Amino acid sequence: MEPLILIVEDEPKLAEVLIQYLQKNNYRTHWIDEGLSAVDWVKENQPDLVLLDLMLPGKDGMEICREIRQFSQLPVLMTTAKVEEIDRLLGLELGADDYICKPYSPREVIARVKAVLRRVHMSPEPEHQLQLDPHRFQVSWQGESLILTTVEFHLIEKLAKEPGRIFSRQQLMDSIYNDHRVVSDRTIDSHIKKLRRKLDAITAGKELIRSVYGAGYKIEYPE
Fold this sequence. Notes:
By secondary structure, the chain is α/β, with parallel strands linked by helices. It has 2 domains: 4-121, Response regulator (Rossmann fold, 3-Layer(aba) Sandwich); 131-219, Arc Repressor Mutant, subunit A (Orthogonal Bundle). 41% of the residues lie in helices and 19% in strands. It has helices at 12-24, 38-45, 61-68, 85-93, 106-120, 150-161, 169-176, 185-203, and strands at 4-8, 28-32, 49-53, 76-80, 98-101, 131-133, 138-141, 144-147, 209-212, 216-219. A hairpin with a 3-residue loop joins β9 and β10. α1 packs across α5 and α6 packs across α8. One of its GO terms (biological process) is positive regulation of DNA-templated transcription. Pfam families: Response_reg (PF00072), Trans_reg_C (PF00486). Residues 4-117 form the Response regulatory domain. InterPro entries: CheY-like_superfamily, OmpR/PhoB-type_DNA-bd, Sig_transdc_resp-reg_C-effctor, Sig_transdc_resp-reg_receiver, WalR-like, WH-like_DNA-bd_sf.
């Protein structure tokens, strides 16, 4: 059966466009135009993903996301016209899987929906590799877990997607700071140092993140 997408959006024209694009891409849809009934609908119908606007009548998207995370880890893709960094970080820390700023292309939304669902339904990593939980910013290694900061999690997520690949400091900066702020190489080195120290506590000192002189960093798993 096609995945069911709940659209929580108070702009009818925008919701209609999203419904058309999603249905053309073989998704089932349900639309709610206010915030008060969204959580109850999720509990009763268990959609595969929630496309959630931030500014809603009755109850805002932040509160809805917070309530959903109390009982479910289903993917939540937040959309908003507010572009302040604090809102981006707050939305992700509440457990949103991705964030899109308005105005956006419906095609971009479809691409993000597909990417999030693909990520959620990926087969688990082998036991000798890191397990990443983007809902909790948590990493696990052979049964041991720890919680990371937002920046630390996005950093290790980037490295872990392609074990053995060397990422330059600039590539890592671009992946964790998407607002094009000016950040020095020392900032990445500081994050890596803190991340290594935390990982040591669950990997018995195994050095997973390797520095490559003059090039950057990579993740390598022990044989």
